Amino acid sequence: LSYVASDINYEKAKVALKEYIEKKKKDINPRYRPLYHLAPPVGWMNDPNGFSYHNGEFHLFYQYYPYDSIWGPMHWGHSSSLDLVNWKELPTALLPETEQCFSGSAISENNTMILMYTGRRNTSVEPYFNESQYLAFSTDGIDFTKYEHNPVLPGSPSGAPDFRDPKVWKYDNDFYVVIGTKTLENQGSVLLYKSKDLRNWEIVTVLDESKGDLGYMWECPDFFELNGKFVLLMSPQGMHSQGDRYKNTFQNGYIIGSFNYTTNEFVREQQFQEIDYGHDFYAATTTEANGKRYIVAWHSMWEVSHPEAVDGWVGQMTLPRELSIVNNRILMKPVETIVNLRVGVAVDGNIGLNEVREFGKAVELFIDSDLNRTVNLLLEGRDGGGNIRLRWNPEDHKVVVDRDSGDIRQVEWSPINSTTWRVFLDASSIELFCGEGEVVFSSRAYPLGGWKLTNQSPQSVHVKAFNLKTNSG
Ligand code: FRU
Hints:
Bound molecules: beta-D-fructofuranose
Distance between the termini: 37 Å
């Protein structure tokens, strides 16, 4: 895997950007800054990219525009972690040149980290853009050099201009990549390619595509084996809401099926299912390490308001979670190392009707209640804001997350074992894990001055809460 050093101006731009970020950090208003979720140091963040394990460390990159709190020419921000919960900020890994650096993935090979990403270029003719796949290399895991012969995968076979978000992996001695695109009939689709050297690719097959029901474009595909099944994870654009389902601007979900590397045929065994039921979860991506499959997603959504924008930054990542398949659905559990963040017990006891408990900004709650009866818990900012209600309706067995009195996400839950709710609160987010992770909601919420819990259920609930240490330095 040979490459040449980029030219000197690119190196100068990297140095200037680093100085800019350090300077702008001082202007950030900290009120909604997460204390233990990964967020951009300044500016805008969207999709997680290049989630990978390299020389004993996790790396997580992200779609990044450092110069404003809105989406702009895409860079790759970069952080690393030993345990997936304490993150170290690293220099911006990729800067746009003639191409914007759209989403992609990473692979660690012979001590080299290789990024594969979509280069999006403007063109003078309709549709005024072109997407193709690029490589960049690093031997120290910090400084990345773009491949001199980019792009390595110039265009989709159908000619569709949307052709992006490569997710690369290795199986036996071959590299594989799935890429999101759309068919000429405007249906979301995922293509599978194969390579011996990451530079020369041949198409293998259309792995799967929408048949009129799963949207016009599949962004950020991922494909992996889990508990003996294969999972196609993707973010479809253009699905219509149906009852409780598909209420966000865009969806994020998965199809479980079978696959083998001889026929390269993916056979669906289950219908598409949403992976998270909250308001703010998109572009999820996974990696494998120590025999476990981890997932992380953009803890936000397109075309929604971001109250943190006026504070100088936008977007954060969800907590990393561990995946498994039980009863033909994916369960998500917070990574075990989350316990590294606990600094002490804040509350441990029963909370009766209309009783209140106050917390700091960063807290983990275990809530036990009688599921034969209604549960109704109000979470708010101690100084206002927030306003997110967690409910359980024993009549229809639905868990309800009601934000700002009416912006509802809900889904049926049948606990396979544990009936505990585990809730992670940070300065502008909430994640609710029901039971073993059968049902998870990730939403943003904006409390002022720490969190406050009021039990408005006709029963008392048991709450054990841990204060979480911050990794903000
Ligand atoms: C998904 C997405 C990707 C694209 C990136 C651009 O949120 O639209 O398809 O690569 O964001 O920032």
